[in-house]
Amino acid sequence: GGSLAIGSVAGVITVCGFQYVQPFLLKTVSLHDSCGVNNLHGMPGLFGGLLSVLMAGIASPQSYDKYSAGMQDQSLTEIFPALAAGGSASGQALSQLLAILVTLATATLGGSSQVLCCFWWGGWRGWRERIL
Question: Using N-to-C axis directions, what is the helix angle for 123-131 and 89-120, rounded to 10°?
Answer without folding.
Answer: 90
